[in-house]
Every structure is written in structure tokens, then in C-alpha cells.
């Protein structure tokens, strides 16, 4: 049975980390909120998933993956669940834990990238926190982004199985998430990200390799891949880059 | 062999979620950075753990748990690893995933609580972002904190095994983390947290029960439990509460 992915339509957001795994594995899935209301899909189905009081283990937020009776929220937890099923993680407990640990750190980087345009909270508009965003973005560009990318570079450089993957000798879901993080940073902060990536050639090379992965490349060219925009996590506000 | 926990000395921080699990289970552990330098412990040992280029799978940040050859960072990943070993999680994959999902959501709440005093970034002092912190704290107190607590209340209310625990009929590590979140919120935002908890009686009751757990209560009275202070995640700045 196809997986059901519930995520806000119109943005890549945190749902994209799950979509990339499903797409790279060629797994059947339904992007529920982008489907037809007449088919029981669309936004009402997503809202029902978030608000249905009959769900004993309710999600706090999207993305939510439904696999039969399993309802799973939190993108890193979803990927941990999908990893073995999509053959996107190693077999040992140690490899699975390490892959998940990298994923949680990528998720932290994503949170901090989001924070640059909403430092005072996501309940307020960007327009109501522009000076604060400028200061937060400067801190992120000059301190945090290089730190995260430098750590990913070290993870690749130290991988005993070679520098082509973050974990072991095969692609894992966290390689795909690294691609998405770099892609998002290049969209939001093109100048500073290109500068930072010059110091992390292994990260840059992995980003390129994932982009050329046959099924990922086909997905990126398809209409299923939403473009970046200024409603998502990674937003291009030129005043926040330098 | 005793677990080695590496975390910044002087604050509870994210290390406390791991400490509470170890303490509640009565597991032997060394709080490395608080030990004697002459015994190979103390801050140098912690810094070495973070900077040692011989570690093939390097931590991005503390807390770090070392168990023999296993080096694990990210508090939620550490707890996932410890759960079965300390008998602080259910046996089924579904229970473990759900417990972890709750933990990740608690970690999000912790991040947002931290963000209230450092909205522009943790590289700047609170004193350099006080007006911004006031706006971020208002958003957190009025919108986010009630949303997180309300979700935890729903998780307890819908637990088919009863409302005494977040998952199943036994204590799990995420019950302990709920205690710590509530404890931290009561320290940082006493007025607004007490008000919010009136609407979440099951959360409040679980917080009380964990505090009375024999080993947890002994730990809380001991010198091993650091007091809250204004260097940690939860800080009492009266101007941020209302």
C-alpha cells in the first residue's frame, strides 16, 4: 500500500526531507494535501489528520507519515522509520543510530536557518521583525552555517568507508537531507553559502552527486518538486545575505 | 562499565534529560566534566571528546554519551539508545518510535524556550537582545507554551493504558523529560506556566509523580542535581514573564 505523506501544500518545508527519501527509493506514496478533495485528499484530509481526536497517538505538527495503522510525525523519526524499509540506512544498530544522529543535527541546522527570518517567533510576519532578522541572519551566516558545514565535512572526511557518503559505503537518507540543506542554503543565502562551500569540498561534491542520482534528478525536474518560495523554511530575502 | 556522560559543568542544560534517565534507572555513570582533572576527567576531557580528530563519528555538540566504543550525541538519540538498556521504554517498535516522537517534540519545546532569551542567536549576550527577547518571550508564553502543554495533555488523555504515563502503563524516559520541561518552565516563567498548567491537570499530575519517584527524589535532593541558573536553557528573567 502506498505511504500517505501529510504536509502543507505549496511549500517544500520539512516534508521535503521525507519526499526526497520516498522519491530516491522509488516508493509509492500519496502527497495527501496536494490531492483532490473529491478523492478524500487535499487540505481537509491534512487538517483532519492533525485534529482527529480519534487518533490515540496524535501528531504535534506536519509532516506526518501514515503507513497502514502507523501514524508518525517528526521528520527525523519518519526517516528513521522509513530507512530500513526503503533500504536507505545500514543494517547495524550503530549505523542506524549514527545516521539518525546526523539527521537530528541537520534538523537543528534547518531550524536555525528558519530562525533567521523569524527570530521572534513564527506567529509574527517577517515584515514585523526585519531588523531582528538581519542580526540573526548575520550570526547564522558567519558563525553557525560554517560550523554545521564544517562538521558535515569532517563526517565525510572521517568516514572509514570513503568520502562519498556520510555513513558507510552506500547512500542513506541523511545524504539526501544534506542535499536538501545545501540546496536550501544556496537558495536563501547564495553569496555566503557559495563562499562557505569553498571550504567544504566533500559536502559540495555530495550535493552534486545526489542531484545527479537518477530518480532524484527525475524528481527535481518533475512537477512534484515544488519551487523554493518565501513561505517555506529557506527564503530568499536578499537583505539577509552578504 | 559505567556510562560516561559529557556535558558542560555548571548547568543542567540538555544533559539533564540524560541525567534524569540514568538517575531514575539507578544506572552507574560518570559525569565526566564535573570530575577531577587529575583523574583524567574535568573540562579537558569534555573538550577532548568534542575535538578529538581520531573519533570517526564526531559529535557536533554536547551532551555526548560514551558507552564502551559507542559515542552518541543528540539528547533524543542518547535516550533512544538508553531506553531499552535502562528499561525506560516499551518493547515494540511502535512504542519505541512513539516515545521517541514525543521526545523530539519535547526537544522542540526546549529549543523554543531557549530561544526566548536568545532570539538573535546564542553567540550574542542576552543583554544585547533584551527588547527582542521580550517580544519572543511573549509569543512563547501566549502561543507556543500552551500549545505544547495542551498537546502533552492530549497524549496523556488518549493513552489507552491510562493517563499516568505518556506511553503505555509504565514510566518511560519521556515521562522524565516532561518533568524536566515543566520544571524548567516553572523556573523561567513561573506566572504564565502556573496559569497554563491549570488547563493541563494530567501534565501537572505527571510532573508531581515523577518528582516523587524514589530515585528521582533522591537525585533532586543530592548535590548531583545542579540548580537552575541564568547560564542554562531555562533562565529566570522576571521581565520575560507575565
Greatest interface (CB-CB under 8 A), with counts per chain: A-B, 44 and 44 residues
Estimate the helix proportion of chain A, in percent: 40-55%
Helix vs. strand class of chain A: alpha+beta
User: What is the tally of beta strands of chain A?
Assistant: 4
Number of helices of chain A: 9
Overall 3D form of chain A: globular
Alpha carbon gap, first and last residue of chain A: 47 Å
Which stretches of chain A of 5+ consecutive residues score pLDDT under 50?
none
Question: Measured on Cα atoms, how large is the radius of gyration of chain A?
Answer: 18 Å
CATH architecture of the largest domain in chain A: Up-down Bundle
Mind telling me the CATH class of the largest domain in chain A? Mainly Alpha
Number of domains of chain A: 2
Largest sheet of chain A: 4 strands, mixed
The SSE order of chain A reads EHEHEEHHHHHHH
The mean pLDDT of chain A is 97
> In CATH terms, what is the fold-level topology of the largest domain in chain A?
Glutathione S-transferase Yfyf (Class Pi), Chain A, domain 2
Beta-strand proportion of chain A: 5-15%
What oligomeric state is this? homodimer
Structure description:
- 2 copies of one chain form a homodimer.
- By secondary structure, chain A is α+β, with helices and mostly antiparallel strands.
- Helix content of chain A is 53%, strand content 6%.
- Chain A has a 4-stranded mixed beta sheet with strand order 2-1-3-4, with helices on both faces.
- In chain A, helix 1 (15-25) runs parallel beside helix 3 (75-85), helix 5 runs parallel beside helix 7 (190-197) and helix 6 crosses helix 8 (201-212).
- The longest helix of chain A is centred in the middle third of the chain and has 29 residues, at 130-158.
- The mean pLDDT of chain A is 97.
- At the A-B interface, strand 4, helix 3, helix 4 and helix 5 of A face strand 4, helix 3, helix 4 and helix 5 of B.
